[in-house]
Write a structure and sequence with these properties.
Elements (H helix, E strand, L loop, with lengths): L4 H12 L1 H4 L1 H7 L7 E6 L6 H4 L7 E6 L15 H12 L4 E7 L3 H10 L8 H5 L3 H9 L7 H20 L3 H8 L4 E8 L4 E5 L6 E3 L3
Parallel strand pairs: 1-2, 1-3, 3-4
Antiparallel strand pairs: 4-5, 5-6
Bound molecules: zinc ion (ZN).
The site of zinc ion has 7 residues, from helix 6.
Length: 212
């Protein structure tokens, strides 16, 4: 099996470009990592944290999943990939910030809406985006919620960031890190077409444009 052509081309560029230019950094990173920030982002190919924050290797500890979700603390077993990453970030790396970053046109959040409308949603996607069920239902039952599909998607994308932040705070080691002031949790939202980032106000849950 050969490496796919586009990956091979990219790899050759990396070896001749970034790796060559930053070889000292890579050599020292081989000794260990100490990123200050963890980003929880969507797996969506258009929302790459390293690109958005212009970060180099070693700077961001990233976990990406469908819809940038964090499940609640759960001791009942299962394959808790995102929870494991959060634990590692706090207990082993001692990150100072966790940023939950949602985005526009999120297929995962869309699936949470589709599920409610009895549209087909994949076997593994369904319970995962079902983490948004409570927020989704509250939104749909709120007469002040947007009536149009795009407006609802937009709103639920923002609410989803709050759900993940709320779930994060149910982990005992997250609570401890928040209490000792080691950790700050942030919410963000990336608008793909315009390349703009919005930051969440933890008091109001509203998002405001990040100034450049
Ligand atoms: Zn997404």
């Amino acid at each position: 099996m050969r490496i796919p052509t586009e990956l091979h081309e990219g790899y050759k560029n990396f070896r001749a470009g970034r790796y060559k230019q930053e070889i000292e950094r890579y050599l020292s990173l081989a000794e260990g990592q100490s990123p200050k920030t963890m980003i929880i982002s969507c797996a969506d190919s258009r929302v790459d944290p390293a690109t958005i924050f212009a970060a180099g290797p070693g700077e961001l500890f990233v976990v990406r999943n469908v819809a940038a979700l964090v499940p609640p603390y759960d001791e009942t077993g299962g394959f808790h990939g995102t929870s494991a990453a959060v634990q590692f970030a706090i207990e082993n790396l001692g990150v100072k910030n966790i940023v939950v970053m949602g985005h526009s046109f999120c297929g995962g959040v869309q699936a949470a809406l589709a599920m409610e409308a009895d549209q087909p949603v994949g076997r593994f996607i369904r319970p995962w985006v079902g983490l948004l069920a409570e927020a989704r239902d509250a939104m749909l039952n709120d007469p002040n919620s947007p009536a149009d599909e795009n407006g609802r998607l937009n709103l639920l994308e923002s609410l989803a960031v709050g759900v993940s932040i709320q779930n994060l705070s149910t982990f005992p080691f997250v609570k401890d890190a928040l209490n000792t002031g080691q950790l700050t949790i942030h919410g963000a939202r990336f608008s793909i077409a315009v390349g703009e980032l919005q930051w969440r106000n933890p008091e109001t849950g509203q998002f405001a444009q990040v100034q450049v």
